[in-house]
Each structure stands twice: as structure tokens, then as C-alpha cells.
Backbone:
């Protein structure tokens, strides 16, 4: 099947070495790698933020030239930064993701993410995890073809980690391609595909079992499995 997203010669100066990448409908992909390895740079270059090189198309539409009103249907992006500058109400924040107002969609997401009671609260007065859920709801609102999410599971308690992973699986089953970055390697078996980055290079691309049990994981992360825990890799 033809991929939903096709990126060619994607790059971001010294932060990300040139790479080609495609993402298929119905798939959940995790980008992993040590701090500073290029996960955020990969996601931002795919979303065409920070003046990246190369080209990205979604459903054959070049992201650099789609009209702004078309973009929400193609791409949902969750940045790593969760700070809110404006005291915008949670309900309005979620609605910001939509090209057309849709009160029903906003209400459904507020309920699904248990934000109903916070709907009228300014988003800068939420806890970090509540704000993460509100920002994720904004990204999900237009049901974009591709979701690019920078550490959507950080700051979430276990209930919300499991719930959000299920929501993202539902989005994939409805036809989306989902790519997110994460640090918790114990969650990898939930994914269809794993991209492993190291020093701005894509060093592995494959199913989770292959990456988790492959030789480059310990070299990349400088840790190795020791029962259910990680320990520093032996020299
Ligand atoms: N705005 C920037 N300008 C220049 N270099 C940057 C910028 N942001 C990040 N970098 C550098 O680019 C490299 C990749 O950073 P990036 O944020 O993509 O890594 P990451 O894998 O997302 O890291 P983390 O796990 O710490 O969030 C790092 O060497 C970082 O210092």
C-alpha cells in the first residue's frame, strides 16, 4: 500500500543527517534514542518547523506548499514544550486544532480525556499532565492523516499512559499514521515499528523485537537489560 507520508532527503543542519522515511496508514511508530540524538529534530523536520531540508508530502500533498487551512487535515503536531503563554480556556485550546468550529468533536475529546471539569479553566492553570492531555486533544481534534507527537507520554501517570496509547492505536486503526518519540523502552512492544536515532543519524528501523534484542541498543543507549531493569553497559 502506498505510504501516507513520504519524506525525502529530510535533514536539519547538524541536528539531523539526511534521511528518507515513509509512514504507512494504520501504523504506530516510536522514535527512540538518547538525549540529544535527534528525535525532536526528526519530528520537527517532518512537521516542517525550524527550516529543515528535504521535502515531506502527505497523501501526495507537499507540506511546504499546502494552504494553511488544509494542514490540520493532513498533520497533527504535538511539540515537546508544554508551556502555555496565553490564559486560553481548555475548551478553546482543543478547538484551536480544527479548521472549522466543531463543538461536538471538542466535547467528545474533553470527555474522552477527562477534561470536562477543566474545560473553562485557563490552560496555564493546569497541572503538567492535564496540560499534556489538553494539548494532545488539540492535536487529535481534526483527525489528521498523520500524527507527529513529541514525547506525548511524558508527565503522564500509568492510567493515562495506557489510555493515550490506546487512543493512538484507535487513531491508527481508523487509518492514521502515528509517529511519537519516547524514552520508556518498556513500552516498545506496543508499537509496530521503531526508529532508533543516535547522534543525529537513523541507526535502526524495524519491529520492536528486532531493535530491543539487537546489538545496537546497548551501544546506542549505553545500558543493557538486567531482568526487568536497565544497568549501565559493561565496558
Ligand atoms: N534549536 C536548536 N539549535 C541548535 N541545535 C539544537 C537545537 N535544538 C536542539 N539542538 C541540538 O540538536 C541535537 C538533537 O537535539 P534533539 O532535541 O533533536 O534531540 P532529542 O533526541 O529530541 O533529545 P531529548 O531526548 O533530550 O529530548 C542535539 O545535539 C541538540 O543539542
Residues:
Amino acid at each position: 500500500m502506498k505510504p501516507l507520508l513520504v519524506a525525502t532527503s529530510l535533514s536539519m543542519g547538524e541536528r539531523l543527517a539526511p534521511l528518507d522515511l515513509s509512514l504507512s496508514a494504520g501504523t504506530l511508530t516510536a522514535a527512540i534514542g538518547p538525549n540529544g540524538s535527534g528525535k525532536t529534530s526528526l519530528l520537527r523536520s517532518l512537521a516542517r518547523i525550524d527550516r529543515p531540508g528535504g521535502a515531506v508530502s502527505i497523501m501526495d500533498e507537499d507540506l511546504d506548499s499546502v494552504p494553511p487551512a488544509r494542514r490540520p487535515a493532513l498533520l497533527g503536531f504535538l511539540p515537546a514544550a508544554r508551556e502555555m503563554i496565553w490564559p486560553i480556556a481548555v475548551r478553546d485550546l482543543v478547538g484551536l486544532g480544527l479548521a472549522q468550529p466543531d463543538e461536538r468533536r471538542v466535547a467528545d475529546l474533553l470527555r474522552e480525556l477527562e477534561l470536562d471539569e477543566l474545560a473553562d479553566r485557563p490552560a496555564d492553570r493546569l497541572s503538567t499532565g492535564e496540560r499534556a492531555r489538553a494539548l494532545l486533544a488539540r492535536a487529535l481534534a481534526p483527525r489528521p492523516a498523520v500524527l507527529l507527537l513529541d514525547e506525548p507520554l511524558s508527565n503522564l501517570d500509568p492510567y493515562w499512559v495506557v489510555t493515550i496509547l490506546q487512543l493512538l492505536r484507535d487513531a491508527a486503526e481508523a487509518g492514521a499514521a502515528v509517529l511519537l518519540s519516547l524514552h520508556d523502552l518498556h513500552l516498545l512492544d506496543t508499537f509496530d515499528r521503531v526508529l532508533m536515532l543516535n547522534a543525529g543519524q537513523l541507526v535502526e528501523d524495524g519491529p520492536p523485537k528486532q531493535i530491543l534484542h539487537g546489538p545496537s541498543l546497548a551501544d546506542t543507549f549505553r545500558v543493557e537489560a538486567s531482568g526487568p531493569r536497565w544497568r549501565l553497559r559493561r565496558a
Residues 15, 33, 35-41 surround adenosine-5'-triphosphate (CB under 6 Å).
